[in-house]
Amino acid sequence: MRERNPAGRPGNLHTKAALVASLALVSGANLTDDAFNRNLDVGVLLANPVVLSSIRTHVESLIAEQTLRLISNSGPN
Questions:
Q1: Which residues fall within 8 angstroms of residue 36, CB to CB, at 6 or more apart?
Q2: Does 23 have pLDDT greater than 90?
Q3: Which SUPFAM superfamilies has this protein been placed in (predicted)?
Q4: Checking phi first, is residue 12 left (phi over 0); if not, alpha (psi -120 to 50) or beta?
Q5: I want to staple 10 with a disulfide (CB 3.0 to 4.6 A). Which of 2, 36, 64, 73 is the partner?
Q6: What pLDDT score does 74 carry?
């Protein structure tokens, strides 16, 4: 359980992970204009197969326990 502030709201883990082919990007940056052009964020680009497998396994377990759910983009391409 995350620590709560005086108003009773818990802290948030605000990290993102994107897995594409044999790379993973882990960062706190949002995918917004401010994030790309004005904010200062840090991230790490990973290519280690063991680390990528661990991230993929973790995401799959979050999906299995329904903490995350798959969504699809059914709009026009």
A1: 29
A2: yes
A3: Phospholipase D/nuclease
A4: beta
A5: 2
A6: 60
The whole-angstrom separation of Cα 42 and Cα 74 is: 32
Predicted confidence (pLDDT) per residue in 28-45, tens digit: 888 788 877 888 888 899
Region at 37 (left for phi over 0; alpha for psi -120 to 50; beta for the rest): alpha
**Separation CA 13–CA 62 (nearest Å):** 15
Separation CA 16–CA 41 (nearest Å): 12
Alpha-carbon span 2 to 8, nearest angstrom? 11
